[in-house]
């Protein structure tokens, strides 16, 4: 078995069993290209189990996230159907190791999107925009990883909640975002923190998907990245994101 397949199985098993593993780069050094190959192979295992890809997430798209995690490169991961948490619904703590939540903007595609595009071309492929919450849950012990580790681990992505879709013409350049836990505000941010405008994350999503030979199809979702640092979650909490002009989205973890 190649090391790509070995580590793909390792991170996949950690994800489905919600058991933390040591950083895989401590066992074998590899680069970011190999890390994306591990990510692709681990997600392919899910797809083979009947859990299709429904979109992609962009990560480290804000200064706050880069500072929080001590990295400087933008990364991306794949979203699969089992990761969807219904807006207003529940998710189970037992599915995660040490989950965190972050406020994001999501795009719903109405046309295929791939390769090098301008912001206007990217927006032309969008059928709706919404506020969203990403649940991240590094499969590594203590949420500690190198860039290659986190890329191999699907950029820590483990779930996502999307609010009501709004018209794609909505100006996304400065959406005020408030994260509330159990009715108390715990984080404030602006969508401007996402590469200056989340549309830039969509342009990057088209490029990285094209480079990976992944086709972003109508109906797929692109998560643009976080507007603030992530907040750690505990069982029993109610998490609600309020976003100016985009309403809110929420879930409970039990
Ligand atoms: O911005 C992101 O979604 C990056 C997620 C990967 C790093 C992390 O676990 O915080
Ligand atoms: Mg994120």
From TrEMBL:
SUPFAM superfamilies: FAH. InterPro entries: Fumarylacetoacetase-like_C, Fumarylacetoacetase_C_sf, Hydratase-Decarb/MhpD_sf. Keywords: Hydrolase, Lyase. GO terms for molecular function: hydrolase activity. Signal peptide: none annotated. Pfam families: FAA_hydrolase (PF01557). Residues 80-253 form the Fumarylacetoacetase-like C-terminal domain. This is Fumarylacetoacetate hydrolase family protein. It comes from Acetobacter sacchari.
């Amino acid at each position: 078995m190649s090391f790509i397949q070995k580590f793909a199985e390792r991170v996949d098993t950690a994800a489905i069993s919600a058991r933390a593993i040591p950083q895989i780069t401590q066992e074998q050094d590899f680069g970011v290209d190999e890390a994306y190959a591990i990510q692709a192979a681990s997600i392919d295992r899910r797809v083979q189990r009947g859990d299709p890809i429904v979109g992609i997430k962009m990560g480290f798209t804000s200064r706050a996230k880069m500072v929080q995690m001590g990295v400087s490169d933008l990364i991306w991961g794949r979203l699969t159907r089992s990761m969807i948490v219904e807006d207003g619904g529940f998710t189970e703590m037992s599915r995660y190791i040490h989950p965190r939540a972050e406020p994001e903007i999501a795009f719903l595609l109405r046309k295929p999107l791939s390769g090098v595009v301008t912001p206007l071309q990217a927006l032309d492929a969008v059928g709706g925009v919404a506020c969203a919450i990403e649940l991240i849950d590094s499969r590594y012990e203590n949420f500690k990883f190198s860039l290659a580790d986190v890329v191999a681990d699907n950029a820590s992505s483990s779930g996502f909640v999307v609010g009501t879709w709004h018209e794609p013409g909505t100006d996304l350049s400065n959406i005020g975002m408030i994260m509330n836990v159990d009715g108390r505000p715990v984080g404030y941010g602006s969508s401007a923190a996402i590469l200056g405008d989340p549309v830039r994350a969509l342009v990057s999503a088209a490029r990285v998907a094209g480079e990976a030979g992944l086709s972003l199809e109508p109906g797929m979702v692109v998560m643009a990245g976080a507007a603030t640092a992530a907040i750690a979650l505990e069982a029993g909490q109610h998490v609600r994101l309020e976003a100016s002009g985009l309403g809110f989205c929420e879930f409970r973890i039990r």
